Write a sequence for this structure.
């Protein structure tokens, strides 16, 4: 069983006899029809005139950003010093990259400085994960690029993901491999890579997509879990509550892919782009997984 299959297998096991999250397959069919009939424009990769080295640098920055793309709040979802969020995190990386060689020590030192100055949560973990990328990151991107230019294995995603998570433990530590799957979705969205293999990958299960699946009634919560989410009470990482939320997200998204014929990137984007139109709170788990 490869790493992607293992995520689906784990998710299905959690959902066999759930205690806190209950999937509604009739509602999933309704939402699939809503998606199909919406005006949503599915992704089409735009042509680019980047050089080989520029593409590699963009991939490296995505790898670096993906390694620290998690938990931007303190205590409540709206307690965010300096309005920390994913977009700001990538802005910091790209701004420093414009000033320094991205493979240099000074680039990494400046990232440490900027993320500290901006008061990003889980700072020690972020610095640790940044440092992991500096060890094998450039070599991994060289291998990734060579992998993608070999047409005989162009769409074979699981082996390269497994190689990545073995090189970078920070990516591997999440049972549901959220940041690992998102890294490859971002490469697809930027360059159109792995298009033929996206039907095999799982949705990045985080805070926002479960919030939206609950909003669209694709699943419901037990009263105990609902009260915790409604009242901004922390849910422990690795607890049955948290695992069922994320497992249900992966199972439902896979079903929506089947019913719509969309790939997982488009299903993810359909919900993600609607997240600010929904005032429902998301579950609060302090984690480096998402």
């Amino acid at each position: 069983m490869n790493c992607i299959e293992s995520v689906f297998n784990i998710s299905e096991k959690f959902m066999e006899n759930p205690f806190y999250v209950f999937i509604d397959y009739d509602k999933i069919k309704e939402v699939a029809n809503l998606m199909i009939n919406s005006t949503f424009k599915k992704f089409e990769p735009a042509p680019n005139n980047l050089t080989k080295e520029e593409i590699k640098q963009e991939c490296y920055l995505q790898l670096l950003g993906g390694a620290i793309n998690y938990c931007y709040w303190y205590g409540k979802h709206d307690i965010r010093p300096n309005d920390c969020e994913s977009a700001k995190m990538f802005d910091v990386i790209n701004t420093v990259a414009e000033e320094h060689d991205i493979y240099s020590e000074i680039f990494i030192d400046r990232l440490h400085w900027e993320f500290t100055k901006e008061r990003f949560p889980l700072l020690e973990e972020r610095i640790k994960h940044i440092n992991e990328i500096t060890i094998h990151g450039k070599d991994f991107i060289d291998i990734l690029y060579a992998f993608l230019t070999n047409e005989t294995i162009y769409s074979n995603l699981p082996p390269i993901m497994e190689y990545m998570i073995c090189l970078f433990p920070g990516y591997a530590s999440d049972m549901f491999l959220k940041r690992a799957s998102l890294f490859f979705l971002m490469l697809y969205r930027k360059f159109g890579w792995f298009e033929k293999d996206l039907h095999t990958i799982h949705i990045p299960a985080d805070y926002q997509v479960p919030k939206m699946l609950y909003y669209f009634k694709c699943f419901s919560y037990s009263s105990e879990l609902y009260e915790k989410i409604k009242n901004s009470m922390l849910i422990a990482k690795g607890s049955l509550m948290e695992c069922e939320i994320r497992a249900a997200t992966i199972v439902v998204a896979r079903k929506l892919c089947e019913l719509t014929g969309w790939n997982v990137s488009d299903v993810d984007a359909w919900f993600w782009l609607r997240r600010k139109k929904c005032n429902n709170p998301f579950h609060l788990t302090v984690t480096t997984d998402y």
Q: What stands out?
A: The two ends are 24 Å apart (CA to CA). The chain has a mean pLDDT of 94.
